[in-house]
Amino acid sequence: MKVHGQPTRTVWLEADGATVGIIDQTRLPHAFATLRLRTLEEVAHAIRSMQVRGAPLIGATAAYGVCQALRVEASDEALARACAVLLATRPTAVNLRWALEEMRRALQPLPPGERVAAAYARAAALCDEDVAINRGIGTQGLRLLEAAWERKGRKGRVNVLTHCNAGWLATVDWGTALAPVYLAHEAGLPVHVWVDETRPRNQGASLTAWELGQHGVPHTVIADNVGGHLMQHGEVDLCIVGTDRTTARGDVANKIGTYLKALAAKDNGVPFYVALPSPTIDWTLEDGVRDIPIEQRDGTELTDISGRLPSGEVVTVRVTPEGSPVANYGFDVTPARLVTALITERGVCPASPEGLLSLFPERRPARSTGT
To answer: Which domains does the chain have, with CATH numbers?
Structure first.
């Protein structure tokens, strides 16, 4: 996608072929800054501190973290240690585990002397695969936006409500929930995005609004609790959100507040779609509410807020009383019954075991032949 008119990815290799470049997303929207990551510890910090964030991008960046570790030592022990360090950075997003398993599967059989080159090659391939997957999600989801436009008699605009940031900043490129929006915009369809501010980290107001603006997509930032009101007054044609983990039966974990949007959509008859790349599906889990680990983050994300003064200086201020306890849950789980459909790179399906298996038949349990 574009930054200041130039095509840009969220993670890349620098000219030396070894250093990893990223966008420091904690500096957005007030400054566009990049960082160079040269060690496993720097990569782990970037993920933990949310300098990179979003399930697909976390996985891609972690793959390069393995590369950085193996440059120092390429033994079996070093590979296992690197994967353990990276896996501990963010517990909810399953793409992290998936990417590390992919790296381990590719590297474990190789002799240590071949692992560094192979690691960089596999990490680059994972990034390219992520781009292709998200482009596929965009193609599948575009049909839903086109159908909404037809239902409106091709008049006015198609209003999409999203929550948190599931655009290209959350992936290597294109995004998940916003990929259909970008394709619709480029196709000339009059799409408009209602952007939830998404407290407490304001990923909607700071990241989604920024990237939509960079790409020229019409959008409006709203407070988190406005979505239901807009739905009641017919101002939302469909909701599209992302997910950090999807269970085998279609429950989805996404940024805290997603569940409430799904309830409002159900009450108002507004389609509620979840866009996800296949690595986000955790086929080992069924009940998302019971089984998905929910990250609890530092309370300062809730008590403090950053902004830019008229002078241009960026400052952080406290908004809660000193001494008030804080609970900062990063995610909630939306049960499959509230999800109209799942948008994957392979197609759109019901949020159900059979719906997912219809797109991923290789995941069906092998039948016993018996005698």
So the answer is: 2-129 (1.20.120.420), 140-363 (3.40.50.10470)
Q: Is 296 annotated as a binding residue?
A: no
> Rounded to an integer, what distance in angstroms lies between the CA atom of residue 344 and that of residue 220?
26
Asked about 16 being catalytic, the answer comes back as no
SS3 15: coil
Give me the half-sphere count of Cα atoms (radius 13 Å) on the Cβ side of residue 107.
33
**For 319, phi and psi rounded to 5 degrees?**
-120, -5
What pLDDT does 5 receive? 87
pLDDT at 371: 46
253 and 219 Cβ atoms separated by less than 8 Å: no
Residue 93: enclosing H or E segment and its boundaries? none
Residue-wise pLDDT tens digits, 113-172: 999 999 999 999 999 999 999 999 999 999 999 999 999 999 999 999 999 999 999 999
| Residues listed for the chain | 371
In 3-state terms, what secondary structure has residue 94? helix
CA separation for the pair 199, 214 (Å, rounded)? 22
Q: What is the mean pLDDT of the chain?
A: 95
Amino acid identity of 132? Answer: A
Q: Using DSSP, state whether 28 is helix, strand or coil.
A: coil
Active-site residue identified among 130, 173, 244, 332: 244
Establish whether 53 is an annotated binding residue. Answer: yes
pLDDT over 70 at 369, yes or no: no
DSSP state of 202: T
Give the tens place of pLDDT for each residue, 43-58. 999 999 999 999 999 9
High-pLDDT (> 70) share of the chain, %: 99
Do 26 and 52 meet the contact criterion of CB atoms below 8 Å apart?
no
54 annotated as a binding-site residue: yes
Q: Which of 65, 52, 58 is nearest to 18 (CA)?
A: 65
Other CB atoms within 10 Å distance of the CB of residue 11: 22
- Does residue 90 have a known ligand-binding role? yes
- Residue 254 assigned as binding residue: yes
What is the pTM for the complete model shown?
0.93
> Positive or negative, the Cα torsion across 356, 288, 97, 243?
positive
